[in-house]
Amino acid sequence: MRAQTLKAKAGWNWILGGFAIYRRNPILLSMLVLAYWFTILFLNLLPVIGALAASLLIPGLSVGLMEASRHLERGQPIGIQTLFGGLKQNTRTLLALGGLYLVLTLAVLGISALADGGEMVSFMLSGKPAEAQDIEDGNFFLPALIVMFLMTPVMMAYFFAPVLAAWHKLTTGRALFFSLVACAINWRAFLAYGLALLLVAGVIPGLILGLLLVLFPGAQSFITALIMMPLVLAVAPAIFASFYVSYRDIFGVSEVV
What we know:
Blueprint: H1 9-22, H2 26-45, H3 49-73, H4 80-85, H5 91-116, H6 119-126, H7 132-137, H8 141-159, H9 161-168, H10 172-185, H11 187-215, H12 220-251
Helix pairs in contact: 1-11, 1-12, 2-3, 2-12, 3-5, 3-9, 3-12, 5-8, 5-9, 8-10, 9-10, 11-12
């Protein structure tokens, strides 16, 4: 297993590569992403066990989306079975990755609760908007900083771990290790990738929506539904496809077993 060290511009190329794959079959790839979202949403509606089941299945479902992207790049057919087919590849390790990620996330949130008495965790679970006074007083700054600091290496270790476990048959520890190393040695590319994601998924849609709301101030709900939903259905599948492109460039498709 060898991870290539890429230049910073590779991060921008991952986004472009994701859109190139998306254009090969935009409707079907969007449908798979929607199926992914609805599966996770449905599971989370189930009390207690649903959230656990969703966490366990996310690695396998993400492999399914990577598989769909690989098939589209190679001109091969995809379908709903492609999404759920990822669950059949090294299943035990994928489930272990999902469970471990949940445990680590809860541990990080628990550590952040020590800094603020659990206020930020309660806010996240409630889903209510933060009070202006809390933001002004910086009540969430320290716990948010702790979460960001501790979750960064966790996310680095998990970024490629599912696909390395599924396609390369690596054990849980080896998949996490190689993913962490691959992200660390390519930090410049991932920094550029993060900026590209911010631009494509945040800045550009925000500017488009803001401009339309200025031109048509009385049609906020209509414009949001008419413009933002198609944007989401175009951008989200391309971003998922860009995950595959980053894997392909760093690890190389020739290494796939």
